[in-house]
Each structure stands twice: as C-alpha cells, then as structure tokens.
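Reading a protein record of the kind used here takes only a little practice. The record below shows the convention in full:
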Amino acid sequence: MRIIIFLFISTYCFAQKTFVENSKLSFFSSAPIEDISAVSNKLQGVVDFETGNFFFRVPINTFIFPSSLMQKHFNEKYMESEKYSLSVFKGSFKDSINIFVNQKRQIKAQGILNIHGEDQNVTIETELNIQDETVEFKSRFDVYLKDFKIKVPKIVRMNIADTIQVNVSGFLKERH
C-alpha cells in the first residue's frame, strides 16, 4: 500500500510539466502615419509548474502581416531574421500553482527576453485560467525598440512606433 501511495505522489509531483498548444503571439505598432500589426501561431514553449521554470520561443519569420511588403521589411531590415531567427523568453515565477485544481490566477513571470540578439531582464504579468488540467495563459506587455537595438531609418520614423504592444495567449497541456 505504501508503494502505491508513493507512486501516486511521485506522479502527481512530477507531472506538472506542460507544453504550449494553440498559441497566438501578436504585436501592434501605432504611429502617426501607419498602424502595423502581425501575428504568429508558432509559439513554442514549456512550463514546469513544480519548479516555476519556463522557456518560450518564436521563430521571427513566422509573423504574418497584412502586407507582404511589410513582412519583407520586418524580416530583412528591422529584425534581420536570417541572423536573429528566434525570440526567446526564459525565466521563472515564484507562485506555487497546482494545475490539478481549477482556478484563475495572476502571476509575475521574471526572466530574460531576447529579441534581435539582445537580452533584457523583464517581468511580465500573466493571467492563468486552469480548467481540467489545461492552463490558458494571456499576457500583454510592451517592447521598446531601443532596448533591443532595433533601428528605424529616419525616412520611415513616422510609420513605426518606438513602443510595440505585444499580446500572447495560448494553452499549456501535459503530453502523455
């Protein structure tokens, strides 16, 4: 009987590693001349709810724009996606979260955000909605171009904002 209880507890404690599914990462730039938006559904990631550690990444060239010319300029001129192919956010959160209990929570995820080859320490507030061992997550945060050494030529300065609003959402599920 003790062995069965130990196995159950061990499985329970170590079964809190979840992976991203059905994600959406979008950004929006509002500037005097033009608004720019793009979406990627290719966010990948893993969250270990036992330790609080996480790792997310998105291939830069997976962002889709309303205009193919915008997409081309984004990848070639601003993000240099051949050289800096991924954006990565890795870190941890301190909150103790049991994914086997339905709940809504706000957490602060702290870590290093790497965009365009530059690292920045960030704290991102994230809303978690846990239902039936599936975790829905939503975050909204700002990215400052100067922090990541993303240069905007003077000729298009009025087309691109200095601050980009980023929205991330998706689901985290265990893989069996």
User: Anything to note?
Assistant: The beta strands are 17-30, 35-40, 44-48, 53-59, 86-92, 103-115, 118-131, 134-144, 163-173.
